[in-house]
Every structure is written in C-alpha cells, then in structure tokens.
Design brief:
Helix 2 packs antiparallel against helix 3, helix 3 runs antiparallel to helix 4 and helix 5 packs across helix 6. 48% of the residues are buried. The chain is 35% helix and 31% strand.
Length: 289
C-alpha cells in the first residue's frame, strides 16, 4: 500500500540568532528568537518514481528530500506536495518544512521514531546550510519561540510565548538578496558580532514589542535593513509597531487597524514585491489524519 503522510508545519521567520557550532550536527544550531506564522504550510508526502517537490504546483528537485530519506532508510523516492504562502530561499523556513515532512514519512512507515525523524530533519538542514534553528522552532511551536539551547529537537531547549492579542504580520519580499548559504558565508562575522551584544536581552524577551525592537537593531547592524528600505518606510513609519528584515523578507507588525494602509504603501514601493498577510501561529508540527 502506498501510504500518504499529511502534515501541517508553521512558517518561521527568525528575528535574531547566534550560530553555535557543536560537537556534531545534533548539537550545532542557533540560539535566538523568531516568529511562527500561519496559515501553516500543508504538505503531502507519498512514494513516487523520483524525488520531487511541488510548491503550489511548481515542481522542482530539492536535495533535502533525498538526503532525509536516505539517512532514515526510506528506499522509495518521495513526492512532497506543498500548499503554502511561503517560498524557498527567501527566509520563510520552507525548506525546513519540506525536510520535516520528508523525514516524518519514515515514521509513517514504522521504521523510525518521531524523535529520530525530527533530529534527521535538523541534520539535513545543517548539512545543507539552509537552517540552523528552524526545525526546533517549527517543532516546538509558540507564536514567539526563544531558542535558549541550540541543536536538534531532542537536544534544543525552546521557550514558547503566546501573545494575548490578535496580531497581523505583513511580509514583503525585497528585490535581490542572498539565499541562506550565501548569507552565512557573507555575513557570518556580522551576525556573530551583532548577536553577541544582543543575545542576553533576546533570551529574556517576554513580549512582542521588545523582540521587534531588538530584531530591528540586529537586522540593521547585520546589514539586512538598509537606509534605502528605511527611507521607503519613513512616510508611514507611525503606522508601524515594529519591523525587521530577515534575509530577503521585510517583516512588519502594523499598528491596530493600519494593516491595509501599510500593505498598500508597501505595494507601491519599487524595492518590494509580493506583499502578504500572516498571523502568529502557536501550533507546532501537526500530522493530519
């Protein structure tokens, strides 16, 4: 019988992070904080003639699927179909969602535990340099997640914070930018330097406004948040509660009742494209039966 796995995984945008190299892939990761976002990515995994990923109908090959199933002993190639508001390589942790689903298929077959599957997903993300803390963050859930100990889900420690108010998150994609391996190569020193000054405050974060302020400082010091972007936002800055840039994503939390105004202003910018609305999501990885 060809079993089908159906799973929901929140998108995840890291606000601030510090890379921590451990003794092995399981201990390597990042500490810091991020936002889990909904609507969750819906993924279906099934046996196929070759490893392939379909993102909203667009098919591509992603090395993560092959590596995950090989490490877990799944012989059949897999097809992973995704319905999502995110995209690959821009900062949504979508590769992590695909890797998690691909890894969990081994549990569906009864050949690996849930813990082992999630740990392998982390190993794959670290080996391919596409994510250091996403698997632990998406697995744990929490609208705000604070990674106080790095590594795979079985070794990481993640503190969850849920906001008592309804919060809209607006994300626009910046023109150009780097993918994750390029970002780590080009900005590693600045990431480590900026996070060294801020990480103690981040690990003690208890509310959204403080996190957004720290994330804005971090993205400015790393070089994600440029003067050009800040000039674009100047005319409607009073409508914005907080904002930061992660890789190619401009993330904005608007003031109450100003979301549509902010989105319309962003849509007119020549620096930005693909403006989308999200909500904070408190659920972690969820298998759909």
């Amino acid at each position: 019988m060809n079993k089908i796995l159906r799973v929901l995984v929140p998108l995840h945008v890291t606000c601030i992070w510090r890379v921590v190299w451990g003794r092995d892939y399981l201990d390597t990761g990042s500490i810091g904080a991020g936002l889990n976002l909904g609507p969750c990515t819906y993924l279906e995994v099934r046996p196929w003639s070759r490893d392939i990923v379909s993102i909203n109908g667009r098919e591509l090959y992603l090395r993560h699927v092959t590596l995950a199933r090989e490490l877990l002993g799944v012989r059949s190639p897999l097809r992973v179909d995704c319905l999502t508001l995110g995209d690959l390589g821009v900062g949504y942790a979508l590769s992590s969602a695909v890797t998690i689903a691909s890894s969990l298929y081994a549990h569906t077959l009864g050949i690996a535990s849930l813990e082992r599957c999630l740990d392998v997903a982390h190993i794959v993300e670290v080996k391919l340099r596409t994510g250091l803390g996403d698997v632990a963050a998406q697995t744990s859930g929490g609208e705000i997640e604070i990674r106080v100990k790095p590594g795979a889900p079985s070794r990481a420690a993640v503190r969850r914070i849920n906001i008592k108010e309804k919060v809209t998150v607006i994300i626009a994609e910046l023109q150009g930018g780097e993918n994750t391996p390029e970002m780590l190569a080009l900005r590693y020193a600045r990431i480590q330097q900026a996070s060294a000054k801020l990480i103690s405050k981040v690990l003690d974060v208890a509310d959204l406004d403080t996190l957004l302020e720290l994330a804005s400082t971090f993205s400015r010091e790393v070089g994600f948040l440029s003067e050009n972007i800040e000039r674009e936002l100047y005319s409607f800055r009073s409508w914005i509660r907080g904002m930061f840039v992660k890789k190619r994503l401009l993330v904005i939390v608007p003031e109450r009742d100003r979301a549509q105004d902010v989105a319309e202003s962003l849509s007119s910018s020549s620096l930005l494209r693909d403006v989308k609305f999200f909500a904070l999501c408190d659920r972690g990885v969820t298998v759909v039966h």
